[in-house]
Amino acid sequence: KKFELDERLKAYKGVWVFIEHERGAIHPVSLELLGEGRKLADMLGVELAGVVMGPPGETTRSFCQEAFYHGADLCYLIEDPLLQDYRNEPYTKGLTDLVNKYQPEILFLGATTLGRDLAGSVATTLKTGLTADCTELNIDLDVRSLLASRPTFGGSLLCTIQTLNYRPQMATVRPRVMAMPERDATRNGRIIEDTLSMIEDSIITKVLEFIPDEMQDKPQLPFADIIVAGGRGMKKPENFKLIWELAQVLGAEVGATRPVVQAGWVELDRQVGQSGKTVRSKLYIAVGISGAIQHRVGMDASDVIIAINNDPNAPIFDFAHYGIVGNAMTILPALTEAFKAHLATARKAG
Amino acid sequence: MHIVVCIKQVPDSAQIRVHPVTNTIMRQGVPTIVNPYDLFALEEALRLKDEYGARVTVLTMGPPMAEAALRKAISYGADDAVLVTDRIFAGSDTLATSYALAAAIQQISKDITVDLVFTGKQTIDGDTAQVGPGVAKRLEMQLLTYVSKIRSLDTDKQEIVVERRSEGGVQVLKTKIPSLITVLEGNNEMRFATMANMFRAARYPVKIWNKDAAGIEDPTKTGLKGSPTVVSKVFAPTPRATKAEIIQCESNEPKDLSVTLLAKMFTKFPNIEKELLKRSA
Ligand SMILES: Cc1cc2nc3c(=O)[nH]c(=O)nc-3n(C[C@H](O)[C@H](O)[C@H](O)COP(=O)(O)OP(=O)(O)OC[C@H]3O[C@@H](n4cnc5c(N)ncnc54)[C@H](O)[C@@H]3O)c2cc1C
Ligand SMILES: Cc1cc2nc3c(=O)[nH]c(=O)nc-3n(C[C@H](O)[C@H](O)[C@H](O)COP(=O)(O)OP(=O)(O)OC[C@H]3O[C@@H](n4cnc5c(N)ncnc54)[C@H](O)[C@@H]3O)c2cc1C
């Protein structure tokens, strides 16, 4: 029997992206979601909207403009001093009210600390489905339903999750999973303003202070263009210095698989994969890494992947661009030397 | 002070193997553990118990065998344990799970009022981080996610000050009890079970609640029926159109392989060479 959407839910139309920002800047994940949202909205033949909530002022309004430049047709805007810092209560109230009033069929948020906090609260308040950390989004046009895919537990598999007879269909996506769309400053859109019906006294949680990260030593994997990553195939923590040496020559960040992080060879911030960071580098060199799905989903959007592994049947070779079959401990020093020599020659040649 | 810690029993992922031929998960015989992230929540509750005096109740929803996870928690020093188990809960997504857990917490609260609910940051199987926010909303509790530190707790004023991990920094928040806290990993370490607590755990009569005992008013809000999300398909990731080009050369010496690789790659992807020259210049 063919699925038929509840009559009452057919009124829900349009794709929304919650525009996350903190301290005056949009989180890139929101722009990435606009890129993906644009495609889905076009498939559905509906409009793409950004949802901007923040304190009154030019900065907040400029986020609407950025949303238009990145593909939105319109923005829902709530300006209110209570939205100065992110707090769960006012943001949940604002977003929930907007959804109830304007009825989107799809709502996306970034899977960040803010987005996950807000998405879980809004979905529960609206009593609708929420799919976490999706890596692929698509539409089943037959039944007008969102197909949200994410890795499934333990295996080399993905599962597709649907929210059939509930609206909106909600999903979160992590930073760097979707491509950043082109910024087109000729685009424009319309703003629909709304209000937050709350007073400060009714909000129980107060922000006392914000302590920014100093950012000095923290590895910035998600935004690294070149990454050299090592896995369990490196055998010993001492061997990991071969990874660091190549990274140094390339000006690259060092990444690792989960077993390596769990063994304490490198810090947690360097873990790439489902329960670590998602990266989108221009060059990703994977050494002694088998290519399990939980690692793959964190890095396979990289432009060029080189794999070094002594097992010619390692799954990593199924999706890498170049492979060298051999012992990492002998290949790595040679590769480091080859890069060094090549770059020196190229630099001389101008 | 009464703290409920929600814990979930999960398969020990370190021991999961993928079938080499069929590419499916081999779950049989995989041992289960307490979700590792939940131990940080439990330890934080036990720490508050040491410092302020508190009753710590552990709660799980799951199959009958999840009782083992609760016993483990008792052995670390939890006072009470409740297992919510019923066939109707099978197939619950996070919305349905939060409904059942919230009902059980209300039920627990009828005996001794619950002041704080702790959860882990996320599980290692479902991995959604959605249950904590869901339970908080259903109980109309203040929600504090990704808490790295509880700075202070004033039991008279019913006030709590926490540090919350947020994008690009730490938010210091002050709020009122009752609240629900999702505890971030890595800021404490689970204590060892004492001999006395291990004996206690072995004999402890875990409370086993079916849907009625757990105070479920509307069974259609639980299990598959109460779950808006449905898994419609399980599939293998799309293979790249072409597999990796395996670099080979006459000698197959590391040096020659490396040089061959670079020549091939820089010819096809000159932008990578440019990028590398840009940064190491
Ligand atoms: C819920 C869940 C979440 C997870 N999240 C993540 C995550 O975020 N990130 C992550 O990475 N993993 C994650 N994992 C673990 C993942 O399933 C794999 O176990 C892990 O990625 C494997 O790491 P590895 O490739 O380093 O090790 P292995 O799979 O052991 O692979 C080692 C590879 O090295 C090769 N090798 C051995 N010796 C040599 C040598 N001398 N020279 C060259 N190659 C050699 C071997 O052929 C093998 O292919 C998760 C698992 C679960 C269940
Ligand atoms: C591969 C896979 C993907 C899934 N994807 C989704 C999805 O996208 N959306 C969705 O709605 N559901 C999803 N589910 C179902 C989801 O796993 C279940 O609803 C589960 O009961 C709770 O979610 P979680 O494991 O993600 O917990 P999380 O929300 O990650 O858990 C957070 C905390 O809540 C507490 N907690 C969670 N479950 C219990 C419990 N049973 N008893 C006591 N405390 C608990 C723990 O303290 C835990 O640390 C998925 C399940 C699997 C196996």
TrEMBL record, chain B:
Q: Does the keyword Electron transport apply?
A: yes
Where's the Electron transfer flavoprotein alpha/beta-subunit N-terminal domain? 22-218
Q: Which domain of life is it from?
A: Bacteria
Question: What keywords tag this UniProt record?
Answer: Electron transport, Transport
CDD domains in the record: ETF_beta
Q: Which family does it belong to?
A: Belongs to the ETF beta-subunit/FixA family.
Q: What is this protein called?
A: Protein FixA
Q: Which organism is it from?
A: Methylophilus glucosoxydans
